[in-house]
Structures are given as structure tokens and as C-alpha cells.
């Protein structure tokens, strides 16, 4: 490519990216009190994140999933490294820390 072609390509690319950024950053203000037909037609269920859950419900489900995963991880870790029960080598009775004997 010649120098002129490279400059023209660089200018066109810069102009295109600038135009796309300007269009992508502009947005209209959302008015929650606008009850026109067009506004309702654009988003029939504004409070729902999925087909049946709100944002809060999704966040609660994610928090519960993370909590359960960590608890299962610690349980697996205890079983893998044999720290989930006291030693069976002692001649004295040792209470289990979980409250459920094995």
C-alpha cells in the first residue's frame, strides 16, 4: 500500500470509530412515569430480568448458589484431607464436631 492509501484508511477508520462511539454513547432518558403506548410496547415487563424473576430474585439465587457451592467445597475438602472426623487411633471417646456420629 502506498503512503496516501494508508493515511486515507487510517482517517476513515478513525472517523468511523468516532461516529460509532458518538452514536453508541447517546441515549434517551428513561421516564418511569411515561405511560404512552410506544413506551409500554417497547418493554412489556420492565421489572422482570428473566421470564419469571426480578433483579432481586436473580441476585438472591446467585447468592444462594455461591453459599451452597462454598459449603460443599469445604465439606469435600474435609473429606479429601480426612479432617471431617476425629482420629480413630485414640483409645478415648472423642465427640464429633458436627454432632452426627459416623
Give me some keywords for this one.
mainly alpha
Query: Helical segment tally?
Result: 3
As a percent range, the share of strand residues is: under 5%
- Give the CA-CA distance, first to last residue: 77 Å
Give the helices and strands as they follow along the chain: HHH
Count of DSSP E strands?
0
Main beta sheet strand tally, sense and closure: none
Q: Please tell me how large the radius of gyration is.
A: 30 Å
Shape label:
elongated
Summing up helix and strand content along with how strands pair, one would put the structural category as mainly alpha
Helix content: 40-55%
What's the pLDDT, averaged over the residues? Answer: 83
Q: Identify low-pLDDT runs.
A: none
Amino acid at each position: 500500500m502506498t503512503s496516501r492509501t494508508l493515511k486515507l484508511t487510517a482517517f476513515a477508520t478513525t472517523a468511523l470509530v468516532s461516529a460509532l462511539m458518538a452514536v453508541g454513547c447517546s441515549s434517551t432518558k428513561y421516564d418511569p412515569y411515561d405511560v404512552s403506548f410506544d413506551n409500554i410496547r417497547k418493554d412489556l415487563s420492565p421489572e422482570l430480568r428473566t421470564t419469571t424473576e426480578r433483579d432481586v430474585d436473580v441476585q438472591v439465587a446467585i447468592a444462594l448458589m455461591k453459599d451452597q457451592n462454598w459449603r460443599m467445597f469445604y465439606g469435600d475438602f474435609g473429606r479429601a484431607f480426612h479432617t471431617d472426623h476425629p482420629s480413630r487411633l485414640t483409645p478415648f471417646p472423642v465427640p464429633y464436631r458436627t454432632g452426627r456420629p459416623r
